Amino acid sequence: MSVPRAMAYAAERMRRRLAELPFLPTHAVIALFPGRVSIGPRGGDYSANREVLRRDCGRLREEHPAYRFLESGNAYPLPAVQAARLAGLGVIGVNGLLHTPEYGSSVTIGAVLTDMPLSDGVPLEEEDGYCPQCGECVRQCPTGALTYDGGTRTFEREKCLSHLRQKQGASLERPGYYGCDICQNVCPMNS
């Protein structure tokens, strides 16, 4: 059985990211921060979230000196949405973002990486809800980056305004926006 190309690429990218760390983490404690980060001309400002995680790591190092701790924010090095889903903190919605019972998809995700043994989370099932699968994000996506057909969600990164702006430096017609966020703005779970 062959591994799909996208999965092989993701696995290799993850291996490279982990190789850059000062130690190989075996576990991650996922942190959800309600609301979205402040957006500026250079992108999202995750510094307040990272500072909280940095302080937590310092405290954990003092309490557990035999183990190592490292803060992780803005999806580096972990794929944050998948990590939070696997930890049982929410489900992935039609818009591809984590949807939580408390905040909808209006969250940012951070983590504390460690080599300390911890128990694993229990992922929630899609039928556990939080994303109403109403399709409003799909209907409002200005570029057609999101599709949802027969229960299958697809996301075309190369069409997403946030991706284009953040990764390729493309300008937007909407001044003042670093990305797009329409899929989050129209989500009834974020009201």
What can you tell me about this protein's structure?
This protein has one domain. The protein is built from six helices and nine strands. By secondary structure, it is of the alpha+beta class. 29% of the residues lie in helices and 20% in strands. It has a three-stranded antiparallel beta sheet with strand order 1-7-4, sandwiched between helices. It has helices at 5-19, 47-63, 80-86, 136-140, 161-168, 182-185, and strands spanning 27-34, 38-40, 43-45, 69-73, 91-92, 98-99, 107-114, 146-149, 152-155. A hairpin with a 5-residue loop joins strand 5 (91-92) and strand 6 (98-99). The protein starts with a helix and ends in a 6-residue tail after the last helix.
Helix percent band:
25-40%
Poorly predicted segments: none
Q: Mind telling me the C-alpha Rg?
A: 18 Å
Give the beta-strand count. 9
How many domains is the backbone divided into?
Answer: 1
Overall shape: it is: globular
The main pleated sheet reads as:
3 strands, antiparallel
Number of contiguous helices: 6
- What class do helices, strands and sheet pairing give? alpha+beta
Distance N to C terminus: 44 Å
Please trace the helix and strand order, writing H or E for each element.
HEEEHEHEEEHEEHH
Overall pLDDT: 79
Trace the largest sheet across and list its strands.
Answer: 1-7-4
Question: How much of the sequence is in beta strands?
Answer: 15-25%
